[in-house]
Amino acid sequence: MRAGVLIAARYRLDRRVGAGSAPEVWRATDEMLARRVMVALVPPEHAGDLRYRHRFQQGARAAAALTHPGIVAVCDHGEVADIDGRPVPYLVMEPAEGETLADRLAAGPLPLEEAVRIGARVAEALAAAHAAGVAHGDLRPANVICGPDGAKVLGFGLPRGPGGDEAAPAADVHAFGVLLTELLTGQRALRALRAAHLPPEIAELCSRCRAGDPRRRPPAAEAHAVLAAAGGRAAPPAGVLPAGRRRRFSGGATWTLGLATTVGLTAAAALTSVVLPGADGASGRSPALAGPSSPAATLEPPLFVSPTYATPPQPSSPPPRRKSPSGKPPQTPGPPHNRVEAPPTRRPSREELVHRLSRVREVIVAGRARGEIAPETAAELDHLVTDFQTELAAGRPVRVAERVDLLRTKVGERRRDGKIAKPRAQWLLAAIDAVDPTPYAAPA
Questions:
Q1: For the chain, N or C: smaller number of CB within 10 Å?
Q2: pTM of the predicted model, to two decimals?
């Protein structure tokens, strides 16, 4: 395509911004509503693949359901014929002012404070998208725009191309680790971290995100919690609004928020992400987070491993239930008898608590992907887990026992409502118990 071309008798291409593995991204003008937009175009050589076009439609619908300050919003999609009559899928997004992160990095690494702030925003956006069942697939500096409103990840919604691997959250986390390394050092090689004299927790996060085994990579929500704490930002992650309560895209600053469902589950080419494999839009079930062909398939078994606790195979009968602070036993199925109690005098540190809460999230993710937890329930539980993690990472006073008991109570309520399958509820309760094994201990 070239500048000046009118797409769908409405969007006039003005200036090309960049390209992912397949799509071209243009700044454009919506001549019907007299507003600025961004348009992503799929090359005609890819558009002839019917399977690819179907994946494009699925991805566009999934991306349109995301609303997050760190994600460039999708507002329209369709197909237009090129000069030879071949169909060319396109995606229309809100305008994102600023320069790409690739342009910023051309002059070298960013100052530590700025790099941490941008990294936290990108990790937060990935966590929100993963919670909504959408992975990116091509996260890199060219697909992140830095503007007055902070960093924004370009477009969730387009597959990489015919024959390309399905995107998966673990692959996004690896790409994020590479991007964060480049932000901090100006280089992609992991060895550059050794000479950069970075805070140990940030250097460790880069290494963990780039682990060869996808199961060893932290979820995006945990990466956000680490960076938010390092940057001194205590605000909880912003949420993704469900379909029907999305931001109204008007080219201005008006927001129609309604009741936001804050999610950070583990919910950039906008143009390179897809709805996760196994999605079923009609049923509303959340998709699996990694397809069998992906090396990042990490859903099952939903085991959690903390510095003190391990999860052996599930036995036939659960142990007695623990009492809540009120003295009344929670009305929930008992967890599997799979905890090894720590010495009663030992109190977990904040870092350990954040780590163990990430294991709770893994059980939620696996249950949602397998249809054992309703999507809205997964979002509700993750809201609680994410706020808990963020407050711990930010150093705020936290009543750990009360927050743990609240999680247990919610799991019990949703189990009785039929929103969580009984086996998954047992796994969740076991993971929650492992967060603070000494009842009602305060964090170190």
A1: C
A2: 0.56
